[in-house]
Amino acid sequence: MISGKTKLAGFFASPASHSLSPMMHNTSFEACGVDAIYLAFDVDQESLEQAVASIRTFSMLGVNVSMPNKTAVIDYLDELSPEAKLIGAVNTIVNREGRLTGYNTDGMGFVRSVKETGHSIENRKITVLGAGGAAKAIIVQMALEGAREIVVYKRKNATFLSLKSYFDQVAAQTGCLIRVWDYADEGQLGKDLSSSDVLVNATDIGMGTKKDSLPIANVGLLHADLAVFDLIYSPKETRLLQEAKKIGAKGYNGLGMLIHQGAIAFELWTQKEMPVQLVREKIEGR
């Protein structure tokens, strides 16, 4: 029941109505006995400053932010957590008595989802396909978690050199070897995959109009000892995961990351553990 003491949390994005976050957090508030409600708000960059001010005005627990606000919101916050500072993007804001701190739980959520499957990041070589916002968050967190080497494959376009420079800085700050290669260099990709423990698809190849496509041209480069993680969770099994299964490799979709990044935000707001299995069942049964 909503009362005079009910707290508010929310989602600031544009568009916002597609989000699974209200289902995840409202299920968790109820299960954990937290007197709070989570709503989705359509907030673009024009209304972002005013929306962030409302977090203080309404004494909200905090909010999640997504595109197009993950970078723009930084200007309106009081401080950033170490990983948000390194990534340069925020997906969770926590309100502590009017002081707003930005976090990025995407990478942490991914690492938790990897550990949940029984795999490890520490001292592993990881190949990442794509270098967008989610990829950056994951790469930074894996470097912080002690990955031995991370190899990033990105299209050689106008942002290639600046991104390479950025990852050089991340490598210097974390002590993790990070290399960036042209996505089109299949020979190099083959060498890296043959010695990799983990493959992460952080591109959109495998969803929507690209659901019948593969993020690597030659599936023969996959091997049975490779743990394959696809950040896509709809469809539940992408073509990449299907091909991995055929050769006996373990494959996992992006639902674990989605849930765990939300779970970390929930913990930051409430100091309680999200009922992860209950949330997973709700999402899979929707």
UniProtKB/TrEMBL annotation:
Keyword field contains Zinc: no
Protein name: Shikimate dehydrogenase (NADP(+))
Quaternary data: Homodimer.
InterPro entries assigned to the protein according to its UniProt record, in alphabetical order: Aminoacid_DH-like_N_sf, NAD(P)-bd_dom_sf, SDH_C, Shikimate_DH, Shikimate_DH-bd_N, Shikimate_DH_fam
Function: Involved in the biosynthesis of the chorismate, which leads to the biosynthesis of aromatic amino acids. Catalyzes the reversible NADPH linked reduction of 3-dehydroshikimate (DHSA) to yield shikimate (SA).
Gene expressing this chain: aroE
UniProt cross-references to NCBIfam families, sorted A to Z: aroE, PRK00258.3-3
Keywords: Amino-acid biosynthesis, Aromatic amino acid biosynthesis, NADP, Oxidoreductase
Residues bound to NADP(+): 130-134, 231, 254
Natural source organism: Enterococcus durans
Catalyzed reactions per annotation: L-quinate + NAD(+) = 3-dehydroquinate + NADH + H(+); shikimate + NAD(+) = 3-dehydroshikimate + NADH + H(+); shikimate + NADP(+) = 3-dehydroshikimate + NADPH + H(+)
Entry binding sites for shikimate: 19-21, 66, 91, 106, 233, 261
Keyword Calcium: no
